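Methods, example record. To illustrate the input and output format used throughout this study, we show the complete record for DUF2335 domain-containing protein. The sequence lines were provided to the predictor; the line carrying structure tokens was produced by it.
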Amino acid sequence: MGDYEAAPRLSTEGPGQRQRDVRATQQITQQHLFVKAHRGPLPQASELKAYADIDPAIASAIVAMARENNTTQNVTVRREQIFALARDLASVLAALIFGLAALYGAVTAADHDHPTTAGILATTTLTIGFGALLLRRIVKSERSDHSSQKTGRSTNGEEA
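The corresponding predicted structure is encoded as:
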């Protein structure tokens, strides 16, 4: 119906019908849509006032629920941060134990006259260790770049 050329083809009446079709099409295309958006744990102030006009206890209950929801979200975020830290520490500790065990194996092999095995084991262990550190550094850099794109700030806190 927004197609200008479609209106005359739909006309079955007299010569003035085309002009009426054109005006109707123009009116349809000139209408505007207004959207009022709100985001937050509480309704808009006008809505909260409307609830309070019905019953003052309702507004107090809504505010109390919003406070409780905020507290719950804060606790959840703190727990997620603690678990992420524990997970990171556990993976670093496991890698450290594995690396030290492999280096101990290399030293033991060298003490028992197996220099080639010791060299291969030590070189492989150090290469994997440095590779893991480098990969971790790259991933952290990409994460900070991604988060700075979301917030519009660079990694040093300046506006991007």
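Annotations derived from this record:
Residues 1-8 have pLDDT under 50 and may be disordered.
The helical segments are 6-10, 16-30, 45-54, 56-111, 115-151.
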